Amino acid sequence: MPIIIPRELPAFSVLSQEGRPCLESPAAAPSLKIGILNLMPKKIDTETQLLRQLSYSPETIQVDFIRVSSHRSKNTSPEHLNRFYRYFQEIENEYYDGFIITGAPIEQIPFEEVDYWEELCDIMAWSQSNSRSTFHICWGAQAGLYYHYGIHKVELPKKMFGIFAHTVCRPDEPILRDFPETFFVPHSRHTTISRDEVLAEPALRILSSSQRAGIYLVADSHSNYFITGHSEYDDDTLAQEYFRDVKKGLPIQLPENYFIQDNPSLGVENRWSAQARQLYCNWVKQCACGRG
């Protein structure tokens, strides 16, 4: 079904060329309202990635992009942000069927030292009463687990970087409906979450995990989901990151299980997109449940 976004948003033309349905004004049929707090530096890429996943859902979705006022983006133009984003203060009296909090490449900074941490805490508190379900991604998942449950992130000996196999732990969970027992997810992070702390919190349940990458998907009784990977990533997202660091002369290993035969010249085998679409479709269906 269509997603409702401004025609001038770069994602509109990209997704239209891919055959994904987009509308620039609300349809006659009722639509779900999804808010996306985009904390990623390359915001336009993230917009397209998330909108692509949402466009596969059976619901018509109206999307708002939200930004924090306590941080100035260095990688996205003020013109783009002023045109397509709303500050949290502008939407705090609104209600969303679903709310997404993205990741951010700041895992190695203590939460309290992040310049927008206090504002993010306000947003996470607000989301519990102003959204039917909140979907936290990567650093956003670590931040959410820390804010809501005091669960700490743990520094990894080396970056978790690549495509990793995951196992479904609770096949009866609606968000994992129609998932295979084993599926793949991209990861790119320097920290993880403590399994012992998650298991010690009775309000949390682990829905999926990876022998190599650790806990992947955690849920609580308030319809919060905490996802440690980046299922929304494009085929070349990890490649761009890898070649960027190589060009800068930074220490970076080949992303695991990503390039065909571990040879960047042979391209990428995408093994995660089908389950990414299923994950977002299942989540949107849950957001739609109980809508009046």
Number of helices: 9
User: For the terminal residues, how far apart are their CA atoms?
Assistant: 19 Å
Biggest pleated sheet? 12 strands, mixed
**Total count of domains:** 1
Query: Could you name the ranges where pLDDT drops below 50 across 5 or more consecutive residues?
Result: none
CATH architecture: 3-Layer(aba) Sandwich
Number of strands: 12
Radius of gyration: 18 Å
Regarding CATH, which class? Alpha Beta
- CATH homologous superfamily name? Class I glutamine amidotransferase (GATase) domain
Beta-strand proportion: 25-35%
Which range best describes the helical content: under 10%, 10-25%, 25-40%, 40-55%, 55-70% or over 70%? 25-40%
What this model shows, in words?
- With 292 residues, this protein is α/β, with parallel strands linked by helices.
- It has one domain: 3-Layer(aba) Sandwich (Rossmann fold), CATH 3.40.50.
- 31% of the residues lie in helices and 25% in strands.
- It has nine helices and twelve strands.
- Strand 6, helix 5 and strand 7 form a beta-alpha-beta unit.
Give me some keywords for this one:
single chain, alpha/beta, twelve-stranded mixed beta sheet, globular
